[in-house]
């Protein structure tokens, strides 16, 4: 009999998480997570916390949708719940302009494929009922693109990512919603990267009937807590009419545990899945923090600090191609072109977590999720400049630092 191997205790050091996500969890959230008592998922305070989370989430998302709650897990769990109403043979149009909208497209192809279509290519089905509209990397999905596709294909469902972190582009939500209304399509939106970062209310987009986000980006919570979702009455009515082929991520069943039964708020939730008291406490605190800061206030902070980072990397000779406010996607100077992966790996080896793009062309992504202060942005800029200089970029770091300081001091003086 072989000897049992017991490894040393796992130690994970602090790193500067400066990528597209997960972001840095707020210390208040970590404290709530760690200090929660050992309680089962039906304990009274756990259930009360879930009811309060549901109510706060409606404020954060800007909605009167009764079916607004959190799906246990990561953003992928929320998206799976969002797409659950799509059935084999359903006509779907999906807009793809990066890695993650591409995965949304694959998910919808899997869900809309007939048994025969899925069996023909289980990992990459090509159902006749799904139209993928591909927009080149680095470009946004425009209202005109959406209008043309929906006018031609007349789908039951239309899906789009709001902010595509694969390329750092914001897509036209107004154009998408309006086109869905005109053509009778039910819009489904991946808001994984925009919720809690941008200043918007989902009820301002009536063509969109389902939304899904994640816990660890704009909400600034632990990755394995709750992915926010919200569904219109029309979406829920359609799901009740057709059903869906899932128990775990069925929106109607999931809502029951959050105190939404038969389309109404009730005093306490009913059993559906085992929830973690620790996760509830963390999610509750993350929502409290966001509401205290206000969605508009946090969005304003992202705009301000992204502008500082954008200006600094531009001064280093990089070209920024993104328009998100939580993420800068850039091309390196010509002298370092083709060495993007080497640069990223060097940074990560020193606890500076930046990312490459995950599809061609290879670019560098630097994020500022929950890093909304001058000290954090200065740290990012200093580390990035040093990493580039180690590879021979010859950047005047003093000049870049002075430019960054000017950005902050000028704004402070103006206020």
From TrEMBL:
InterPro entries: PyrdxlP-dep_Trfase (IPR015424), PyrdxlP-dep_Trfase_major (IPR015421), PyrdxlP-dep_Trfase_small (IPR015422), SP_NH2Trfase/AEP_transaminase (IPR024169)
Superkingdom as given in the UniProt entry: Bacteria
Cofactors that this protein relies on: pyridoxal 5'-phosphate
Signal peptide: none
Keyword Repressor: no
GO molecular function term, any single one: transaminase activity
Keyword annotations of the record: Aminotransferase, Pyridoxal phosphate, Transferase
SUPFAM superfamilies for this protein: PLP-dependent transferases
Name recorded for this polypeptide: Aminotransferase
Organism encoding this protein: Paracoccus simplex
């Amino acid at each position: 009999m072989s000897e049992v191997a017991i490894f040393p205790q796992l130690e994970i050091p602090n790193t500067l998480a400066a990528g597209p996500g997960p972001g840095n969890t707020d210390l208040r959230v970590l404290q709530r997570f760690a200090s929660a008592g050992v309680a089962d998922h039906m304990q009274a305070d756990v259930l009360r916390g879930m009811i309060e989370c549901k109510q706060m989430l409606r404020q954060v998302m800007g909605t009167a949708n009764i079916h607004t709650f959190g799906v246990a897990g990561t953003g992928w769990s929320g998206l799976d719940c969002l797409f659950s109403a799509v059935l084999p043979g359903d006509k779907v149009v999906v807009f793809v302009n990066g890695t993650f909208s591409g995965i949304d497209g694959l998910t919808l192809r899997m869900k809309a494929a007939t048994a025969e279509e899925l069996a023909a290519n289980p990992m990459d089905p090509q159902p006749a009922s799904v139209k993928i509209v591909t927009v080149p990397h680095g470009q946004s999905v425009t209202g005109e693109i959406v209008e043309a596709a929906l006018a031609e294909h007349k789908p039951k469902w239309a899906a789009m990512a709001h902010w595509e972190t694969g390329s750092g582009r914001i897509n036209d939500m107004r154009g998408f919603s309006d086109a869905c209304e005109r053509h009778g399509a039910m819009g489904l939106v991946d808001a994984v990267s925009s919720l809690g970062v941008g200043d918007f209310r989902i009820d301002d987009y009536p063509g969109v009937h389902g939304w899904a986000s994640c816990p660890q980006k704009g909400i600034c919570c632990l990755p394995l807590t709750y992915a926010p979702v919200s569904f219109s009455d029309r979406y829920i009515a359609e799901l009740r009419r057709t059903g869906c082929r899932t128990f775990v991520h069925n929106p109607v069943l999931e809502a029951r545990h959050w105190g939404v039964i038969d389309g109404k708020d009730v005093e306490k939730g009913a059993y559906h899945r085992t929830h973690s008291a620790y996760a509830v406490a963390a999610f509750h605190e993350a929502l409290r923090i966001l509401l205290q800061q206000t969605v508009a206030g946090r969005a304003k902070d992202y705009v301000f600090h992204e502008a500082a980072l954008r200006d600094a990397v531009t001064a280093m000779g990089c070209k920024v191609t993104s328009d998100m406010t939580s993420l800068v996607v850039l091309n390196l100077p010509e002298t370092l072109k083709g060495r993007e992966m080497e640069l990223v790996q060097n940074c990560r080896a020193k606890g500076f977590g930046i990312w490459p793009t995950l599809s061609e062309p290879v670019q560098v992504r630097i994020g500022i999720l929950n890093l909304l202060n001058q000290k954090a942005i200065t740290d990012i800029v200093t580390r990035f400049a040093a990493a580039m200089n180690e590879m021979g970029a010859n950047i005047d770091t003093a000049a870049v630092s002075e430019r960054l300081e000017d950005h902050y001091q000028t704004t402070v003086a103006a206020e």
